Amino acid sequence: MSTDKSSLSLRYHGRILDHLGIQMYQSPIAALAELVSNAWDADAENVNISLPDQINTNATIIVTDDGIGMTFDECQERYLNVGYARRGDNLDEKSLGKSRPILGRKGIGKFAGFGIACVVNLKTTSKSTGEATEFEMNLDELRTQEYVEKDSGNVSVISHTPPDESKKHYHGTIITLKNLTLSRKLNAEQFSKSMSRRFLLHTRSMDFKVTVDAKPIPDDDDLANIQYDFPNDYLGDERPDELIIQDGWGIEKLPDNQQIKWRIRFNEDPITSDELRGISIFARGKLAQVPFFFQLSGGLSGQHAQQYLCGQIEADFIDLFDHDLISPERQRINWERIECKDLLTWGQNRTKNLLSLWKSRRSSEKQKLLTEKVDGFSDRLEKLSNHEQKTVRQALSKIASISTLKNEQFVELGKAVLTAWEAGRLRDLIDDIANSGDMSELDLLDILIEMNVVTALHTAEAVRAKLDIIVGLHERIKTRALENPIRDYIADNPWLIDPEWETFTKEMRVNKIIQKAAKEAKLDEYEDWKKRVDLVLSSGNTLLVVEFIRPDIPIDHDHLSRFSFYMNAIQSQLSASTVHKFTNYIGYLISDKLDRSPAFVQSLQEHKQHQRYALDWNGLLTRATVKWKEFLKVLVERAPNDARLRSLLEEIELK
Known about the structure:
Elements: E1 12-13, H1 16-22, H2 28-41, E2 46-50, E3 61-65, H3 72-79, E4 117-125, E5 132-138, H4 139-144, E6 147-148, E7 156-161, E8 172-180, H5 188-196, H6 201-204, E9 209-212, E10 215-216, E11 226-230, E12 244-246, E13 249-253, E14 259-267, E15 278-283, E16 286-292, E17 309-314, H7 341-375, H8 378-382, H9 386-400, H10 407-422, H11 427-434, H12 441-478, H13 483-492, E18 505-506, H14 511-520, H15 527-530, E19 533-539, E20 542-548, H16 557-575, E21 584-591, H17 598-608, E22 612-616, H18 617-638, H19 643-653
Parallel strand pairs: 2-9, 15-17, 20-21, 21-22
Antiparallel strand pairs: 1-6, 2-3, 3-8, 4-5, 4-8, 5-7, 9-10, 11-14, 12-13, 13-14, 14-17, 15-16, 18-19, 19-20
Helix pairs in contact: 7-9, 7-10, 9-10, 9-11, 12-18, 12-19, 14-16, 18-19
């Protein structure tokens, strides 16, 4: 215990490194961005970050730069001097060689590596002397020292070579992070994008290149999905007074005479990444504030535009005050400080103004789009009365005013509204839309839900009608109706075979080829086939052939084999044709009954692989009934609480 009571001394516990490294730089991006900053300050022209292929005990991250390096004494007096302020009292200090603005300020960024690793190894060669030094810091060893004393020798020097003129050109620094504390492998592409958003240096300086695994980080200047780009997209009197536009950036002075540069963009689609959505602030080319909205809350005009907004502001003055206004990990600015007041106020006003502009422009563009698209329906609209035209147009305009709707979504909704009105459906709903005030997203959602229910109900009624038709066909079969009427019945209603075939129609263009294929398959030479009835349907590139065998003749293996040969003949002849472009061929053989022998059942399974099927009438109609009932259940699931749909389903289930 000291007997000198005239003074006290400040001592540092070894665990202070937990606060200077681990807790401040917990993400790989934040930690490694500090090492890139150090390379910039060292006048490096090239910095490469080498990421590990996998995370294990031997995994390392290596940051290599070709900066000026350090001598042994500089390692001690600068790098290992906790809190060493490179800028000192000159907050606007520049580097000696390239006159770059110095980024380092607090003197603790050197410990950033401890945020993701337990061991930091540093090799450096001085550009001025050629002196080379390698040392290693082990976090666990430094933690064990209860208090860190000056000249304690707690850093291991692995190697040191004296000044050597011939080694000067090897100048630079290599930092290797070992014993990584990462839980998973880093995605190099995503890491590279995230690193690019930490800096403007690589886009502002032609002699500073940052690579990840030897690949340059992107410029983060993708214009492919940009809808509005401010300040370039200001129109007329929208442009603020005193604004200067230079290379796509706005230059303005705040009331306190501090200068800023800014660029704010709106994407076509919502921005899903928190890392991108909002406005970032940079000081001296380095991130000072992660994307945010200047502390704005609800009740804003065009508030939903925040989901589409990304922007950058250069405010170098933030990093030039005596009091450091930027958090150590470069995530946020201390907005409580009076020095930040004018920037905060400017940011809030500019953001609110641009959000409002976005809302009005999106609405105007949708109105223009509406006019263009509705003009395409002029023939249909002219068939409506003047009152009906007015109602439909008003409804579409209200939907167009919802700013979060994509143009493609709006067009599809517009088509649905026109079609529904023409069909006499949803007219009360459409009239409600037309007569509503400003429509919100929630209003539209409520209407869409009701439209969904009503549409499902209309569709369900149509399904019931189809099931009634199937019942009618059952009656035809029972009364031994002639095959030709049955064939015509199916031709008019091809969905009887499968609901997906509602778009199929009679195919008359291939009659000669069908006849030629039947001759090649020698169908007319067999008694069972002489009174067959064939039906050919098509849709797109698909040809559907249905053959009805004479009544009372069960389909057996011979029938199936000959039918398969017949289908192959059709396919081969059509494939050789330059007129017909069918690529998908489906065949159905239908009769009163099927052979039920195990061998035939096995043969059926084999032919299914080539889309050749055999069904009896009962199987055909039962399958269609089951599929339509399944479809009806799906409709009910769209609105499970709607009593009308439930009642309809129960009614059909009883049949």
